[in-house]
Write a structure and sequence with these properties.
This protein has 480 residues and is α/β, with parallel strands linked by helices. The protein is built from 15 helices and 22 strands.
Length: 480
Amino acid sequence: MATAFSSDGEAALRRELGPAAAAAAAPREDLDGFYEMGRAAAFVQGGGFRKVALQFPDELLADAAAVAARMEAATGAEMYVLGDTTYGSCCVDEVAAEHAGAEAVLHYGPACLSPSRKLPVLHIFGRQPLDIERCAEAFRELYPDRQSHVVVLSDVVYAHAMGELEQQLCPEYPNIVFSRVVCGDPPGPALPGEVRQFGRQFLVEAPGGLQDCAMFYVGAEGLALTSFMLTWNCCPFSSFNPATGCGRRETLNVNRALMRRLYLVERTRDAQVVGILVGTLGVAGYLAVLQHLRKLLQRAGKRSYTLAVGKPNPAKLANFLEVDIFVLVACAQNSLLDSSDFYRPIVTPYELELACNPAREWTGNYFTDFRDLLPGACAHIGLPPAVPAAEAVPDISLITGEMRAAHLHDPPATQLPPSTALACRDQTRALAEISPAASFLESRSWRGLEQRLGQTPISKAVQGRRGIAIAYEDEGHEQP
């Protein structure tokens, strides 16, 4: 799960293209059908857009030039191709689009369907081929009982074929439910029994609700399926991979994965300094959740730093060793980042709430969409009143065995900027700023080069080497 979001690009630079890979990277012949040129042109002309950004994932960049040329010819608008995205390619890159002055975005390929914050967006998933007959046959093998309550989910690139699959299976399975892909937040309140998550919408009519249903996923194994399985962990899952033509019951040990996440919650309770990683700048509500997390950490007595590092990788985050744990604010698919290769664990906003909000308890439900935690959302739980330290119930860390503070702190009457947190430093009554980073630096055995003010003799500047590091002009000759 880490490579999809935090890749440093080394794999792409070292990839060798053989005959099969070169054929797969060649432009497609049926561009109009695969990229739905008619629907895209109608969107651009209907909105009166003059500058449009076309966002492609890496695997579809071979078609970018041809698609842009056809779109310009059909609409008369300027088209700008966005290749390397700021964050995950499944999210709409509004930052890069605004750099080009675009008025709208055409997002191609797989998408997390998170609502955008500013620009109008049209999602074009790409009509990947699906063998309907083989998929229906795999479904019958996995669910021989015709009265089974099953919800059919699919990767967005196969959504175009779900209508035909529904026509084949519905006459045989009266209790089957097909989810519908919804771009953006659907209007109006949800109906009783209606589920709206991950850009999918479906109505559950099983007597016991969703927990009495099985899930059948059409698509390859990936972040979307993992997110579905953790969120709906009470439902048994099976899947059909169109690339291999095989159906199977998913054997991912969800309980083991949840235990790993709950271990990270315990690590978060022990942390004193938390780094908030900004993993998206385009998903609606990300500013609100950043403010919510800062308030939560302040009430829990923890220091927080907000870090915008683009796509996180171990090398970047290793620069912040004073941070005990990171929380990633990203879309629902990219939130579950595998942090086993990182020097510090990375948790989700929901896991941070489990650790710092005493009113929230583990109920078996898991949330990967940070918008569910905001006030007014389905999973929001407010902070309880602060308890004096003398009345707080002692809490013992399950990892270190030490006692830790488990009560909320009263918010200060007047909130001061961090730069005004001053303390007496020495006998001259000089004032110095206090910060966890400075305290961490003080405790390290190696703190960098010593200044030695007034002790280093002054020397004249001399001419150094010339050229590049791989081949200096005086390479091999002794310096004068």
